[in-house]
Amino acid sequence: MNESNIPLAITNQVSALILDYTNEKKSIQSFYAYPNSLEGFKRKIESTQFTKTQRTLLVEQLKQQYAHNEIAVPKAVNSLLDEHTFVVTTGHQLCLFGGPQYFIHKIVSTIKLAQQLKEAYPSYNFLPLFWLASEDHDFEEISLAHIYRTTIQSSTEHKGAVGRMPMTIFKDSYQELFDLLGDKAPLIQQLFAIDFESKTLTQATAKWVDELFKNHDLIILDGDDKALKRSFIPTIQKELEGENSFKAINVTSEALKTQGYKAQVTPRAINLFYLDTNLRERIVFENDEYRVLNTDLTFSKEELFEELSNHPERFSPNAVFRPVYQEAILPNLAYIGGPGELAYWLQLRSNFDQLNIPYPVLVLRDLIIPTDEKTITNIHKLNLKLEDFFLNEVDLIKKYLRSNPSTHLDFENELNALLELKTKVLEKSKSIDNSLTGMVEAEFVKMQKGVERINQKTQKSIKQREEVALNKIKNIKAKITPNDKLAERKENFIPIFLKNPTSYIEDLIHLSNPFVSEIKVFKQ
User: Cα separation of 318 and 325, whole Å?
Assistant: First the structure.
């Protein structure tokens, strides 16, 4: 059950660029290839070519990855051999317990989009695909989760790609979670069934995501794959040889800035990292040689290309080059991402064009407010609307006080009357003695300040009288938009999942609609 959707324009949750993108503003249509519409997908399907060789390699590597992760291979994987089968893709960092709720919402959006496309184009097959961002090395960002007002966080001395890190690092965090959940822990222990002694974060994440979405044909892919990167070697070589990506993306970034938008990411001269055990550092070209930052590793061009040929798995794309790698190895139609992700994808089309790699449809994931009947009822009793909670706390309280007859008390009319009286007194005093003007002005300033002090005291008394209601407003805002951001960007999915574990995913899929770019209200 849900309240009506909330338009993005009144929420301040997305940038002007994303707002204009979702509204298909003509001035930015050159920054993407296809609109997020059924007609846009029809054109993308017709233009997408993915060879039998590419499909065979993808299926082989998926089967190997599933075997390595000790997960049963979904039956849908074999359908990728069919030229009429495509994927729609989302991806995310391997956050502890999924990190913020929108980790789940991205996957739900992808599943729903695949269903909607199948209904619209039944002669094709569409599979939702989740890309494990296993090569990311920002451990601090993935190492914590906010659950029941508790922050659970892991720590380690390990460096490099987080997906390769052993699950022993996270063992204490899992125990802390189970202790926090008390008698609710068994259900979560079943979901996160992990062998801490022999598994990596990639394996553990793949396993619990597969378990959570096992009924929805979700394909899980790890880009940290030697064979898949081998197929990408020619494009990696182009990136190492010149600054083509750097130049192409910067041209687009400047074009966006000219129209008043901010660039989301800054490209490098070489948008690749060198990846090895406990190591993921940038590759740079300096003094006629290639160097791996913060190491003693150096290569001539010939040596680096030989390294690439022998060990393609050691070359890791950064944030602006990973989309190119993704689209090169997948029969993909769309990328489903959040506002920040789509903002940087809109910087990338020219780079795709110069590399001759197909550009996907960009789809804004579902932005969701999880709430409940009690919260909605309390909001209505306060004579407010859910959308009001996108105001900052000060303005929200002002709106509440003004919206209720018993609390809407100010001295604006009296101040206006005082100004009118001042004008009349000044006119009379001037007619008698012009030198009285200063004294009259000063007296009225005193009176105005006095009324303002009375107003301040009155407002303070009202707030004290309304303390219970104001605390309720603050608590509701903390649940819905903490720090003026959607709670899904901070709070973990586990507490909401535990309210109705048997229908949680199905209810979200029912609510989802990636063709409607508004904030959806998920009421349990």
Answer: 10
What 3-state DSSP class applies to 99? coil
What is the Cα–Cα distance from 202 to 223, expressed in whole angstroms?
11
Q: Indicate the burial class of 323 (C-beta count within 10 angstroms; 0-12, 13-18, 19 or more).
A: buried
Q: What is the DSSP string of 452-511?
A: HHHHHHHHHHHHHHTHHHHHHHHHHHHHHSGGGS-GGGTB-SHHHHHHSTTTHHHHHHHH
Cross-sheet strand order for the sheet of 272-276: 298-299, 289-292, 279-286, 272-276, 315-317
- Cα dist from 119 to 506, 513, 517, 524, whole Å: 18, 13, 20, 27
**464, pLDDT greater than 70:** no
Question: Measuring CA to CA, how many Å separate 96 from each of 135, 467, 504?
Answer: 15, 38, 20
Q: Are 161 and 275 in contact (CB under 8 A)?
A: yes
Sequence-distant contacts of 258-264: CB under 8 A, at least 24 apart: 259/27, 259/28, 260/16, 261/15, 261/16, 261/17, 261/28, 262/15, 262/17, 262/343, 263/347, 264/340, 264/343, 264/344, 264/346, 264/347
Which helix or strand (DSSP H or E) is residue 8 part of? Answer: none
Q: For residue 131, is pLDDT > 90?
A: yes
- Confidence grade of residue 443 (pLDDT, cut at 50, 70, 90): confident
Mean pLDDT of 139-159: 95
pLDDT greater at residue 174 or residue 524: 174
90 neighbors 320 (Cβ within 8 angstroms): no
285 neighbors 142 (Cβ within 8 angstroms): no
Report the side by side order of strands in the sheet with 518-523. Answer: 6-7, 518-523, 367-371
d(CA 483, CA 523): 21
* Residues sharing a CB contact under 8 Å with residue 102, sequence separation 6 or more, in sequence order: 338, 365, 367, 368, 486, 488, 489
| Angstrom distance (rounded) from CA 379 to CA 180 | 29
pTM of the model: 0.90
Q: Which two tokens stand for residue 45?
A: 């399907």
User: How far apart are alpha carbons 391 and 484 in whole angstroms?
Assistant: 7
Residue-level pLDDT at 2: 43
68-107 pLDDT, tens per residue? 999 999 999 999 999 999 999 999 999 999 999 999 999 9
pLDDT more than 70, % of the chain: 95
